[in-house]
Amino acid sequence: MKAVKRIDNDVENGKLEIKEKSKRNNMLVTVQNKALLSGIAYCISSCSMILVNKYVLSSYNFNAGISLMLYQNFVSVVVVSILSFSGVISTEPLTLRMIKVWLPVNVIFVGMLISSMFSLKYLNVAMVTVLKNVTNVITAVGEMYIFNKHHDSRVWTALLLMIVSAVSGGITDLTFHATGYTWQIINCFLTASYSLTLRRIMNTAKQVTKSGNLDEFSMVLLNNTLSLPLGLLLVLLFNEVDYLSTTPLLQLPTFWIVITLSGFLGLTISFTSMWFLHQTSATTYSLVGSLNKIPLSVAGIFLFNVPTSLDNTASIFFGLLAGVFFAQAKMQEKSQS
After folding, report:
1. Helix 253-279 and helix 2-54: axis angle, to 10°?
2. Taking all residues of the chain, what is their mean pLDDT, rounded to a whole number?
3. What is this structure's pTM?
């Protein structure tokens, strides 16, 4: 009888172990599927946003980049507000103290979006993605002087490769446009300034919230809401009102559909990036962002019939690979720290 009971117990324990292993495997598959799905969603939304903006500014020849930015941010504010009022998400209320703390960040944020619009109008998508690598160089230098952060030789090697690719890409660019390159360099400085300033103000901003926390939804609503009055002021200063009152594009339903889609895409990037970060890690997010530039550059060249040469194409892909090398170096640097 004891032998029979022992056998029964062994069988039951074996079944329990199999069930537990099966549960763990199912959980692992579920997590991997969510990470994969969130990564795909982030890649599609970020690529689509840049391509749609390029389409609006170039194919439609829309000459009001500030107004486009303003409308996209307005769409984001409307959607997030509806989700907040319906109880789907929770956001921090906008207070005068919060606005005072966040205003410097928002000014840089608006400048970053506008300079990106202007550079996309004059430059092809592939060169924009390569030149954006300069942002990493400026950010790394800023981290040294502001946060006393030191980088290892692999990171600096990757940054040097990025500079070389940007210079060689500009020299061999058959569609070189000085205005576009000027706006893109300004965008690189503003993007780096935005990330560095955001790190410094984040803790202060959390202290003036009611909950003591500032999540991504609240930051999206805060940034886009504060950008509306500043955007309106810039529309008046750059005299885009006259252009908007005379352009026939605003009478085309298809044009409104496209720019509204761009507004939803801008909001989708915020949601998918947050979802992807939650499912993986910041280092994986950075690596995927670098890899994401490769299909984006190829799509930009073919969709917009960009004239290119072998030297320019080699420079572009050299810069893209430098971005991947930079992300890997940062991952190794973080794992060793």
Report:
1. 140
2. 78
3. 0.76
